[in-house]
Amino acid sequence: MKKKVALLGDSIRLIGYGQIVPQMLGENYEVFQTEDNCRFAKYTLRMLFDYAEDLKNCDVIHWNNGLWDCTELFDDGVFTPEDEYVENMLRIAKKLKEITPNVIFATTTPTKNTYKYTHNDKISRYNEIIVPKLKEMGIVINDLNSLLIGKEDEMICDDEIHLSQKGAEICAEAVCKAIKQF
After folding, report:
1. Is the overall model pTM greater than 0.90, yes or no?
2. Contact at 8 Å (CB) between 64 and 10?
3. 102: burial class by Cβ within 10 Å (0-12, 13-18, 19+)?
4. What is the mean pLDDT of each run of 10 residues along the chain (182 residues)?
5. Within 10 Å of residue 127's Cβ, how many Cβ atoms?
């Protein structure tokens, strides 16, 4: 019997590792992933209502949010303040845990140091504030950030934020490894 897996997340999933994972997992897995970019945490939380039928009976859910949340577009602060990010992420985690006990959170990936809207110190901060709280809930952490940090020139493409082909492949391998532990 095939295991049902869901991949939720922003464009790091959508145009990155999510394009590779289904083939890597192979025929023993049925993979659902949204055709939509799950954007920031509050958007993902809202869309869980729309995805409810697709997520039903999932054996494993792998999810990421963070890049949009810690982005500073207008020089007036991050898109999602830390306390709101944590609140939304914990609400997402709770809803996902109601579907399956096997929930994996992928840490937010770095950007190139020249990317002007999100800096790696802010990304690290958002990872640091959410990871311990998710661990307390029994969520497995897939630390994609640590796989890529310090290697941004080869792992992040020319747009300075999305995964390069090599970055997508490395992340896809880590995602598959995390999923296969269940």
Report:
1. yes
2. yes
3. buried
4. 96 97 98 95 98 97 97 94 98 98 98 96 98 98 98 97 98 98 97
5. 21
